[in-house]
């Protein structure tokens, strides 16, 4: 039987209809306008001529994950690495010209094959030659071809005759035992070992220069180091870098490091150094692959497949990996689950993870393609980087001239993705709130702080507050006029807190949730003042004035100017989509006007950029193009069993006077309907009607003479 080939879709640029001619700028718009049907053809965005090929031409990816030796190991439960005749014939078939033509025929533009297995070079020579031959033939047929690099694990049994000291490459636990990988017989390599990194760079260089691969993908590197000497050395180096050799904190941490019986606390100096060393190794490995790709005489796509995206960019339980430290520099991230939602997870956490990925500049690739996944990805994953990858599963028949029929749902989703990307490509989120998570400060977070971070992010989702994450050390100047939320961040330096003061002076607002202390040094022994007092707020009765007076927070929140402080964000109601969850708890209604929402309105000095009275399973997101001419309101109904009414939506848009139409795209339908709307200075109001699954409202303006929206 042929192996499954996963086909991903980053589709070619397509065009959609645009709007009719605009009203002259001097004409006063009537109070009520019925949108005209768009006429004419023009692209919704223009791709720069110097954009890399995967953005300019689009991707349709077919992948083969393993070599015949790995299949033999699985089939025989580890008894042999020697493939059978049939397994070798399968490899010939899947790499044949006929197969490559069949892949091209179903729209594939990039084929990914393994660059050998996980054995030593002498055993992998044939497989690498097969990979090079496949690349050459695929490119001749008009396909691009890339490789997987088998560099994160080894099978020690296969290396014994070639490298008797292979154990020196392995990551080990505190007892010195090699850390086992999920694949039978394999062990994890340590990135702290120089020879491991050198081999990784060499194979990447071979694939790019000699084989002329168009793409290089790293497999998931779940464990970057362990207790092996090279790993412990990296921890020592991190401690010395932070404190200096003679500092008592460094001396005590090194003593604990050398004591196998010592218990390491995650928020201790040793725990933080261990996390920093582990993350820096992963980051360096990705940077090294990206550097090899940049040396090529052509653009080379770089990607990685993590165990789970949360392990890399979200909040792994008990692990303070800073979200922005990894995956930047990678063009595509393969992830098997997002944006799917399992029985044990809520939609809210999936939305949070997609927003984190977006903030980190990652394009999420998933093997799953179905209506809810597509809705989530467009609404919350966005296409801000110009890259989005979708995976649909197709099994190719032994007769390479034809494929088994693709499920109608998959075909529908592919077509829907083509249409939606034409509308949303180049769109970026338009948040009212930036949740500020400086990576260095996150190393000091305990479980209590991480819980507060998750609670705050979840509450922002379920309270329908347009928000995104900011993962750098200081907030950007472009954030002026927005609100920053600092939640579950245990400590900031005076330099970072000074950045918040400048942000306030430029007209921003700051909400501090929980207790954050300001110190000269993050690791200083003194407790330091709290951030809210440092910024000029003190805990007491809430007061405010001006436009937001009617939205002042109730007891428990405090404000001085536009600085607010809260102990907790309030209840975050999850959107559950599984029947089991809905039977137990139903769809808890999100709160529309509780203390968190009112505090954010007070910080902004105005209503949210998108406001609506929504049902129990509805979530909102707001995106726009760089020119401010197109705004998209995404409405996602996570209650798949029951449609929900969205009677009215109010949206703040740039150049509201120049809005010429609001187009409603419902679900997967290609056609759009025109929606009547009303103007009120800088806002539009329209009825969304009944939402069954996923709706998008495209608001187009003919010009941008009006002043920008305060969110810019």
Strand and helix map with partners:
Blueprint: E1 5-10, E2 16-17, E3 32-34, E4 41-42, H1 53-56, E5 59-63, H2 68-75, H3 85-95, H4 97-105, E6 110-114, H5 121-140, E7 144-148, E8 153-154, H6 156-159, E9 187-188, H7 194-210, E10 215-218, H8 229-243, H9 248-257, H10 269-294, E11 301-304, H11 309-313, E12 332-335, H12 347-359, E13 364-366, H13 371-381, E14 389-394, H14 408-424, E15 428-429, E16 433-436, H15 439-442, H16 447-462, E17 467-470, E18 483-487, E19 491-493, H17 494-505, E20 509-513, E21 517-519, H18 531-534, E22 558-560, E23 563-566, H19 579-585, H20 595-604, E24 610-612, E25 618-624, E26 630-637, E27 644-646, E28 649-652, E29 659-666, E30 672-674, E31 676-680, E32 683-686, E33 689-691, E34 694-701
Parallel strand pairs: 5-6, 6-7, 7-10, 10-11, 11-12, 12-13, 13-14, 16-17, 16-18, 18-20, 19-21, 20-23
Antiparallel strand pairs: 1-5, 1-14, 2-4, 3-31, 8-9, 15-25, 22-23, 24-28, 25-26, 26-34, 27-33, 28-32, 29-30, 29-34, 31-32
Helix pairs in contact: 7-10, 8-9, 8-10, 12-13, 12-16
Write out key terms for the chains shown.
six-stranded antiparallel beta sheet, alpha/beta, 712 residues, 20% strand, 34 strands, disordered C terminus
Describe this protein's structure.
This protein is α/β, with parallel strands linked by helices. It contains 20 helices and 34 strands. The strands form eight sheets. Strands 1-5-6-7-10-11-12-13-14 form a nine-stranded mixed β-barrel, surrounded by four helices. Helix 11 links the parallel strand 11 (301-304) and strand 12. Helix 7 runs parallel beside helix 10 (269-294), helix 8 crosses helix 10 (269-294) and helix 12 crosses helix 13. The longest helix has 26 residues, at 269-294. The protein is globular and about 75 Å long.
